[in-house]
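Limitations

Structures in this collection are predictions, not experimental determinations, and the ligand pose is part of the prediction. Treat each record accordingly. The example that follows, with iron/sulfur cluster as the small molecule, is included so readers can see exactly what is and is not provided: the inputs are given verbatim, and the output is the predicted complex.
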Amino acid sequence: EVACVYRRSRSEMPANPHEVVQADEEGVKFELLTAPVGFVGEGGKVTGIKCVKMQLGEPDASGRRRPEPVPGSDFVVPADLVITAVGQKTDSSSLGGKIGLNKWNDIDVSKTMMTNVEGVFSAGDCQTGAATVVEAVGGARKAAVAMDQYLRGEAVVGITEPFNVARGKSIKEVDPAYLGDREKAARAKVPTIAPDERKHNFGEFELVFPADVAKKEAMRCLSCSCLDVNTCKLRQYSTDYKADLNRLGTGDYNHPILTDHPFITRDPNKCVLCANCVRICNEVMDVTALGLVNRGSETVVLPTLMRPLADTKCETCGQCISACPTGALLVKPALPKPGPFKTEAVATACPNCSIG
Ligand code: SF4
Ligand code: SF4
Ligand code: SF4
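Predicted complex:
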């Protein structure tokens, strides 16, 4: 029988909710609002945990209600094995006192991930404190870039964070209209070994999705990223010139994305009104399928007589897409989940017209 003694209530548990549910399924008994205060033992062996009942008071600095002992509520939870799970910390004893530590006793680094010792870099839990694998990999990537600069004898400036802009800090902040055409589908449940079986071994208990479920799950991707993210000149210049989004704000455009042409997608929200597309269509292709409509901040690029682009004289030459510095004009993606992927240019012949 396994018991988990925790001084707050279930809703304050810092564990992932699904881990608590899985422990429940495996028969773990939760002694909630209970704080361990000592151990009792006999003949050098533990026989129980001395506990005191708690009640929740006012919220503390973490925002969770502070547990306070209930006077006279001491009792003993019988036990023959106790595991104290009181957090994780970096064991810095192997560093010989040479590497600087921060106030949490983790390795202190500059923004290039270099420690106070020149040529020694650090990343991962020993530098951030307990965190995720993804954060450790991200830190290692930053450190690798700076190490490369160091070993090449270049100035160690670390990684240049690319300029990014989003419609919200999380999906909850994004206007639902923006992703309104995406089908809503609930997450599939990961199959697991039955609780009675898994509680007797330490093997991997989460199984893999069958192929059809895995494909369905992949199709739930919202494809929320901009397909031009790897080639957008606006993003490149914004990165190079360290554009500050807070200086002028981001505006609040919500133009519909236009997919009426069989090969071209237009997203006026990303248009910077450079007029490259209008000029190349008019001055190079001599087609004049596009024009600038309205004035000032209301200006938009629209096809002739505001008709669908496919109903104009557009020859689908793609020159406007090549000339567009942003993701406002794109080749319509052929894949149901189009990326963005980093692509390479290869010589090819388009069979769409007789010119080839
Ligand atoms: S592109 Fe797809 S997988 Fe990536 S964050 Fe957006 S929805 Fe999620
Ligand atoms: S694809 Fe060619 S013809 Fe059509 S709008 Fe663009 S530049 Fe003009
Ligand atoms: S080339 Fe692109 S960014 Fe420039 S006006 Fe045309 S659609 Fe807008």
